Amino acid sequence: MLIALSGLPGAGKSALAGELGRSLSIPVLSVDPVEAALWRAGIDRSQPTGLAAYVVVEEIAAGLLSLGQSVVVDAVNDAVEAREQWSALAHRHQVELRYIEVVCSDPAIHRRRLEGRRRDIPGFVEPTWEAVEARRANLATWDEPRLVLDSLDSLTENVAAAIAYLGESVPQQ
């Protein structure tokens, strides 16, 4: 199974992805550390490193799926093209695709979380609240079925809801 998380920066998707990966014993592939690695390797930030990071994560996910391994992808996935990328990958590997969108329904809390987070991703520059708001204004509408989780709920509750949503489809490792 391919599990694609979606949500604005700071909404709580990485926390959910990590807990899902631990709970289900499946790998989590995150776009942000890949993009930061591209910058550390000397690729200029003016280049489309965000797109490149999605492509790299897709390739790693393809390798894992070809081995019969489920995978969680942790990315904003706010564009139709990003979601189509995961759909095509799932189709190529004949695996089920499940989307989980993580939101933070209180903008003040979301902003505090974003501005206060300190992730251990060398070279990664956290987006500003203004950048997140711009992304929010341009979020692509969803046509795909998905589970929407609010990070104001406890992480434990959200992990349980996600696992219930994934149901019998996730092979036991």
Provide a compact summary of the structure:
The protein is α/β, with parallel strands linked by helices and 173 residues long. It has helices at 13-24, 31-40, 49-66, 80-93, 107-116, 129-137, 155-166; strands at residues 2-6, 28-30, 71-74, 97-103, 146-150. The relative contact order is 0.24.
Describe this structure in words.
By secondary structure, the protein is an alpha/beta fold. The chain has helices at residues 13-24, 31-40, 49-66, 80-93, 107-116, 129-137, 155-166; strands spanning 2-6, 28-30, 71-74, 97-103, 146-150. It has a 5-stranded parallel β-sheet, with helices on both faces. The model has no long low-confidence stretch (mean pLDDT 92).
List the helices and strands and how they pair.
Layout: E1 2-6, H1 13-24, E2 28-30, H2 31-40, H3 49-66, E3 71-74, H4 80-93, E4 97-103, H5 107-116, H6 129-137, E5 146-150, H7 155-166
Parallel strand pairs: 1-3, 1-4, 2-3, 4-5
